[in-house]
Amino acid sequence: MASTQLLSPGTALPDRVLRLEGSSNFRDLGGYGTADGRRLQWRRIFRSDHLAGLSAADLQTLADLKIAHSVDFRGANECTVQGYAWPQFTRHAFMVEPTVVQRTQSLLAAGHRLTAADTVGLMQETYLSFVRDNADRFARLFQLLLRSEAPLVFHCTAGKDRTGWAAALILHALGVPREQIMEDYLLTNAHYRRPVAAGAGRLPEEVLEVLWRVQAPFLDCAFDLVEREHGGMDRYLAEVLGMDRAARAELARRYLE
User: Fold this and answer.
1) Burial of 193 (0-12, 13-18, 19+ CB in 10 A)
2) Do residues 156 and 47 lie in contact, with contact meaning Cβ atoms separated by under 8 Å?
3) Structure confidence by residue, pLDDT tens digits, 8-67
């Protein structure tokens, strides 16, 4: 079970990855350093794959962590197939539909034989849609972080793409360097366990490897689009997501030490 004790000088750092029975990619954003020498507080903001399979022991761990909110970025069908309503925290549905799944199915239905290169392109298109088409969902996450100081977890199905972009936005808003943002993003490949039957028999393994893992170019293409169309992440945060200088200062006050 995860420890929720406050840290004191000389205390070992908490584990970043929480070992849960029903989730393989539940991670703490705490401990990352900022450009001005501060660090994110531990046990405040978490990222995860979906929470529908949590065991009783897992739920007790989340209760010990005092998690009060979950932000669910999954689409309508995902929430129906693997829904949850755990009474100990409030679920907020900020739906971002999984366009890569829809596009993959359309191509297969048209008789197209998907390759790994095709799939990389589909994944990059998905990340561009996060920036262009789904900004309001990620803005709502920031609003919740500023409205409540209770510990929070945000997630999608695998905790890698929609969740990965959300984590990148939060970390950048708090002043974490790009290198550490990418380090956190790529941790998914070390910990996430894809469903055994996911795509079995329908897609080549090389395609599944792209779909169920993350690659630096996925996240980079979103950052590059923000740079081209908005003049950089700072302006995008302020003008599109509502995180101006004052809002970011308040976010830092709440979540940095």
Assistant:
1) exposed
2) no
3) 445 567 899 999 999 999 999 999 999 999 999 999 999 999 999 999 999 999 999 999
Q: Is residue 55 part of a domain?
A: yes
> CATH no. for residue 56?
3.90.190.10
As a whole number of angstroms, the distance between CA 249 and CA 107 comes to 45
Given the residues 100, 141, 145, 156, the one annotated as active site: 156
Report d(CA 75, CA 225) in Å as an integer: 23
Helix axes 116-133, 162-173, angle to 10 degrees: 50
pTM: 0.92
Does 156 qualify as catalytic in the annotation? yes
Does residue 43 lie within any of the structural domains? Answer: yes
Could you give the angle at the alpha carbon of 42 between the alpha carbons of 38 and 48, nearest 5°?
120
Higher pLDDT, 112 or 145: 145
What is the spatial distance between Cα 119 and Cα 206, in angstroms, rounded to a whole number? 9
Tell me the H-state helices in the chain: 56-64, 76-81, 99-109, 116-133, 135-147, 162-173, 178-186, 188-191, 205-211, 216-230, 233-239, 245-255
Burial of 195 (0-12, 13-18, 19+ CB in 10 A): exposed
Q: What is the pLDDT at residue 173? A: 98
